[in-house]
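Why Phosphotransferase enzyme family protein? Reviewers of the renewal asked for a concrete example.
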Amino acid sequence: MVDGEAVARRFGLGRPVAPAVRVEGGLSNELWRLTTADRIFAVKRMVINADRPDFVDNVEAAYAVERRAWAAGVPMPEPIPVPDTGRALAEVGQSLYRVHRWVDGEPGRATANEAATLLADIHAVGERRPGTAEPGWTADRYGADLVELTRRVESGPTLIVDSHCDLDRKNTLRSADGTLFALDWDAAGPTGAVQEAAGLALDWAGGDKAVFAGALRAYSVRSGLTIPNEPWIFAGWVAAQGGWLDYHATRPEPESRDQVRRTLAQLRALAASLDDLLGAR
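Here is what the prediction returned.
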């Protein structure tokens, strides 16, 4: 149970009028709804990896990207900084917490084209520089087909942009006025711009090649960036899925075994359909 009064004091939220209420659906952390005298807040108790020595620095670096996007007008819940530090995280009791203004809406209610357009808007306000995309994933333990996939998508120099880095369906919200919000910026940071666009299109297309191609067109029109019709555009998606797979492969919980099966299936689906996806463009 979250101590709503203690969290409210630490973040300067005002007096709670009721106990915090758990909101279901988070994969990595706990989300709670906290109502004070005149406002409602989303309170996140950090769980996965919160004990790692680099965790706080990583979240605060992501918060710097989030804060710039908020100041630039990207649709997102307002982040609430810790009053005396201006940082994202505060320790309350024995846990770390983050707070945002609550936004009512429906999660995941968007088309792939709308999500790609939102991503282009995020990229437009992120810091840009030339560089090399994140290191590739080592797939040796998972079979020759995935080793070949990593070889095919190996990336080189590219445009790096500070971005959301996890704009899948669960991290979007359609508000009552129709605005599409980007939620959960804890993974924000530098990434390859076209690689993130290709990964988003792949996730949102659900295996539909025409939807995939349409999302990339929508991103290109909005961003002005050309996305090459080459396998390396999938490098970021493969690296992210590979890291998720490696994390769960070391854990004994049934949920992690399910994640391993699901992630392996997704990677193998891309390996089998990569040329068809590129051909659909």
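The chain has a mean pLDDT of 95. This is the kind of structural detail the renewal will allow us to pursue systematically.
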